[in-house]
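Entry, Tuesday afternoon. Goal for today is a structural model of the target with zinc ion bound, before we commit to ordering more compound. Inputs were pasted exactly as handed over by J.K., no edits. I checked the ligand SMILES twice against the vendor sheet because last time a stereocentre got dropped in transcription.
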Amino acid sequence: MTPYCVTCDERQDLRPVRTRHGAGGPGSTVYACPRHAAAYPPEPDPIEVIESILRARGEPDDEG
Ligand SMILES: [Zn+2]
């Protein structure tokens, strides 16, 4: 299977923009060409998400 842009039919210089996790099977990756990849922001880093949640909760710092 040749990957192609999820928005147009471009098949060159693709970049993965999404990973779909299917039930009971391997996830499939969605690709987009450079022009359309901008419409798909990168998936957030799980570590950064956790840190942002902790910051939002106002957890006290060890220092200070
Ligand atoms: Zn495209």
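The two ends are 56 Å apart (CA to CA).
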